[in-house]
Amino acid sequence: xxxxxxxxxxxxxxxxxxxxxxxxxxxxxxxxxxxxxxxxxxxxxxxxxxxxxxxxxxxxxxxxxxxxxxxxxxxxxxxxxxxxxxxxxxxxxxxxxxxxxxxxxxxxxxxxxxxxxxxxxxxxxxxxxxxxxxxxxxxxxxxxxxxxxxxxxxxxxxxxxxxxxxxxxxxxxxxxxxxxxxxxxxxxxxxxxxxxxxxxxxxxxx
Length: 206
Ligand SMILES: [Zn+2]
Hints:
Layout: E1 14-17, E2 23-26, E3 29-33, E4 40-43, H1 53-84, H2 89-95, H3 102-108, H4 114-125, H5 127-141, E5 148-152, E6 159-163, H6 172-175, H7 190-197
Antiparallel strand pairs: 1-4, 2-3, 5-6
Zinc ion (ZN) binds next to loops.
């Protein structure tokens, strides 16, 4: 291989260099270590690295692998902090909607989910507050009275609100808006139901 002079300093020559301690930002890791055995063309005088297409491809593969190998450590660390705070893996799996044993797979690197790992890290940063919040949120959101959906009527011309499963105080006949459950003369209109609920100020213009 012919000697290449470094265009940055015009003094050194570019040689394939393998060495530990080189770091680079990668995805959500600000200082991922580049594997020591990966050769990167580097100026032997100023240290500038010259990454050609071939090196770039090898670097991508190496970083992907390095990234996959740092994630389990993040999981293990977060789970240890959570366990120390009295939150079991089983409860976490339940709270996060995971199958039983999933966190062990995440910890061993058999499964990868950076979103989930980020979530675990956030919970682990302040377990007593955040896990409690999560417990509370799951408890309350299932009975939230804010859920409404809109549906196009049979005529397809106007929208009306369908209140689903959220207003247990209203007799069932008043929340059934299928339009088929009433004699023609007694069909419930959107306005009737909105008024009956007492919770929604806005009426649909008809
Ligand atoms: Zn140089």
